Amino acid sequence: MVTVRLVAKELRAHVPFTSFGTITGLVLMILITKAGMSRDIAASLFWVFHPVHVFLSALVTAGMYQLYGRGRLYQTILIGYFGSIGIATLIVQHDLNRVADLARHFGVTGLVCVNKWDLYPNMTDVNEAQAVERGLKTAGRIRIERQGSATYERCLGKERPGRTRGASTGT
Q1: Which residues of 50-88 are buried (b: 16+ CB within 10 A; e: fewer)?
Q2: What mean pLDDT comes out for the span 125-141?
Q3: What does the alpha-carbon distance between residue 28 and residue 23 come to, in Å, rounded to a whole number?
Q4: For a Cys staple, 140 with which of 55, 62, 150, 170, CB 3.0–4.6 Å?
Q5: Closest listed residue to residue 100, CA positions, set 127, 72, 67
Q6: Is 147's pLDDT higher than 50?
């Protein structure tokens, strides 16, 4: 019961920050959409703000561990790293299963297009194999592209003329 109270206390303390972050993100998405920002500028902004988000997530995770775990510095760093980056790897598996369940429920063929597959090629192979086992089809792979989003259009079969950089088509 003490653990439940502690978690409830932490959640109450963090609601204002989570709410502020969510509202800020939504407002920024609306402003960017209404402003008609180009995909290249949006992609550049992503590559600035996403690493900041990952770093702050690791910092908060490490801070919570240090506050309650009182571990050594190397343990805190490892918890921060795996708590923000390692957990994302596990979330991919969960999302993949959710897509497969939804596709099966609606009687449609689900497609999987792996974004940033070249960050962790071995895990991409595992994810694609699991997708096929669950009845999904692979639609393609998108390499990391720091100069715009043409690869997204190529994955969807809408390649822009003159843009050939950074894509790898599906399996």
Answers
A1: eeeeeeebbeebbebbbeeeeeeeeebeebbeebbeeee
A2: 89
A3: 9
A4: 170
A5: 127
A6: no
Tokens 């715009």: give the residue: 148
| Gyration radius from the chain CA atoms | 20
Q: What are phi and psi of 111, to 5 degrees?
A: -115, 145
Which secondary-structure segment (H or E) carries 113? strand 111-115
Within a 13 Å sphere around the CA of 60, how many CA atoms are in the beta-carbon half?
A: 12
Residue spans of the domains in the chain: they are 37-169
Residue 10: CB partners within 8 Å, gap ≥ 6? 64
* ∠ Cα 152 138 143 (to 5°): 35
Give the per-residue SS3 of 132-146.
HHCCCEEEEEECCCC
Which bin fits 62, alpha (ψ -120 to 50), beta or left (φ > 0)?
alpha
Structure tokens at 4: 């439940």
Token output for 71: 């571990």
The Cα–Cα gap between 97 and 113 comes to 14
- pLDDT tens per residue, range 21-37: 889 888 988 888 888 88
With cut-offs at 50, 70 and 90, classify the pLDDT of residue 73: confident
